[in-house]
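User: quick one
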Amino acid sequence: MTNLAQSSAKPSRNVALAQARRVVDFVDRRITTSRWVKRNEGRAFPDHWSFWLGHIALFSFVVIVLSGIMLTLWFKPSMTPVTYDGAYAPLQGVVVSEAYASTLELSFEVRGGLLMRQVHYWATHVFIAAMSVHLLRVLFTGGFRTPRKLNWLIGLAVLVLGIVGGYTGHGLPDDLLSGTGLRVVEGGIAAIPIVGTYLSSFIFGGEFPGEDIVSRLYVLHVFVLPALIVALLGAHLILVRRQRHSQWSGPGRTNRNVVGSTFAVHTTKAGALFLIVSSVIVLMAATIQINPVWLRGPYDPSQVSAGSQPDWYMAFLDGALRLMPAWQIDVFGHELTLSVLGPVIVLPGIILTALAAYPWIEQKITSERGDQHILDRPRDMPTRTGLGVGFVVFYVMLWIAGGNDVLAAAVDVPVNWVTRFLQISILVMPAVAYSITKRICLGLQRRDRDKLLHGVETGITVVRPDGGFSELHVPLSRPDAYALTSRERRVPSELGPEVDENGIPAPRPRGAKLRARLSKAYFGDVIDRPAPEEIRAARPGQRVTTPAGSGIGDNPSHE
Amino acid sequence: MFDDAMTDSTSPRSHLSHPLTSRDADPPTDVEPRAGQRATREVAGALAVAAVFVIASVVFYIGFADPADASGAGLGNLRVSNLVLGLMIGLALLIAGVGVARWSRAITTGTRIVEQRNSFDAGGPAHQGSGYGPIGSWLGRRRLIRNSLVGALALLPLPAVLALRAVDPDASSRRAQTAWTEGVRLLTDLSYRPIRVSDLQVGEMVNVMPASFLDLPEQGLARQNERAKSPVVLVRMRPEEMTPAEGRENWHVDGIIAYSKICTHVGCPVSLYERTTHHLLCPCHQATFDLSDNGAVVFGPATRSLPQLPLAVDDDGFLVARSGFTEAVGPSYWERKA
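Assistant: Done. Structure below.
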């Protein structure tokens, strides 16, 4: 804002600048951009490294779009067979599809074409990875709570669209691996009861592989999916803007305000991050080879190479296909192949439904009311954090299973052992991870409580007159103490007595029992922050180090 | 016990962020003109270096990045040009990014802002009780109309599902058909030569296509589709090693036996053969089939045995199909007849 003020105070003599100012004025008189800028001057942008993860996703999406536009200039989305006569000698004379031939042309005969292809691929990996980490950040900090539930759903939808976008792009070059990926999905579609075969025929334009799928994927990949992603990202950002960002607890921060850096600082940082994200992507594209389609050759449904694996973001589905034991049932003389249907259709459905519904489920359990703008530290919600880590472990195990053959080769054991091991551990490990995480969270809570009650270690040892040694503890600083104590008290909801004082059975709404039980599971063993009296008792003769008025026992959101 | 005086001199290291203490003050560049000038020079310098890299990349692009150098002679030059071009553009972006980051940390001023939030709470004063006015009553008052509207619209996709079926009525029956029929010769894949019994050693595996495949128009759609259904693996083992099921005793010729190459799991071509165990493994999801035991599943997610192709020898001594496949090849589907 100081920049604006200075420039208006001191008109420039520079002719070009004066012209630019006139253009700005012209635009401003019509769409009042200055009002927009002015409104932003008062906006606060909470600052924390984890709040930039979404930006990384957004910026890599910009890189995807820019590099993708370059690729469309040369890529031909056609499965018409042609005899390859391009620059890549080993494939000269081989009959390939136009899609494959144009991908080779793009790589070998277009200046900078290979770089653009690799940028497009790496940016996709960064995009999906950044979205995934962003999702975990929001999950573990409770950033999905009211009023951000809608944005949680939108974000989830963008993640799914991003993964579908990556998959459709992976299918475009019509090389051996992309065709194998399509084959697996076609097998999954065929397993859908009643409509499977017709759905497959509808999608592939007849039999697999047919000659339509590449051009159909292309329409999805360059038009439908990007349009949906742009629209939903726009909605996501508008909602973030309207609701303002959530923030960590700390002095001066309440549930009713936003504390953060200014528009100018935030925008400059965002610009720097954009440049750095795109530079990392370009440097990866320059130095790390990705998807060398020429090594794999054109797609031939009768061929496959050992170690065939999908891109990492699809690997959890492929891993599920590898782990699921053979299971087929007969339904009135029809085949229902659960070992295919389960991993390809049911599992992603369950994962997405669980993720989408979680904010509502948690609200039912916590009975939390009203807007929640202060983020939870993961340790303060041990059950949620445990569930989240359990989910991550489950996902990672599936992901590892997607490369069980590669893993088996790397550690030199039979792939059958790896599969059996993963089949068992995927049932056990998430539960183990859940309980370990919960224990760690509770331990950290205890540590926080100790810090408040007994201060922090100084490393200074004193000798008492009687010869004993003890370490000096000093009270927590006021801001630290505030941040630790301003969180809400978590108490499990009580069911109340079964009969009232007159012996009449108390009315119990349906589900209340379940809710009480879940609430106990969530908060039964939470180590609560100490009450002011406890701190006073632990430190006689000392002022309690929390800001006056904030009230150590009060929740800022209910002030 | 606790020495209060200590708290003034030794402040414990903070483990939490303090918004109002850590970076609240304006950067020193505002109060120290020389520091400000230095930071400005650094930022401008970084942007200038970035510009130099951009220009260098343009020069390289025009002068050196000609992929024609790479043609025929392998990828060496292409790799170098990809590397140099990418490094130049990437470094330009990186250095510019570092410069702007320095700008944001050292020079861009502005104290921390505290903004009051709007309430989005439905119980809050902004939303109290008024509902949605006329629009709310338009949809909210006649519940029966609203609910039957939703119900009727929810049924709409049903005709679409039926229409889907009409798009391709043969979709399911076609899955059961391959190019294999009685008397069709087995040809080695890619070289398309007929096969004599004596061509195959015990333990050998050959990929095979039907001779009828060559009748399909070259470079046509039908060929590509047939390659997804008709491929067959031909192996030879000692006849005493196999345990043919009832009715399949004469499906092999002197220990030469043929199975569909298309996995019954999701349709990858099964292709890794272990000659000592007669196991055939699918590299996609590790479904493993025992070719000496009628293609039975011995490991992995596949639910059905590999379909076996009955073999015979024609008058010229070449291997032919005794009949087509007796069941549909490839992955399971709803209408499939066992």
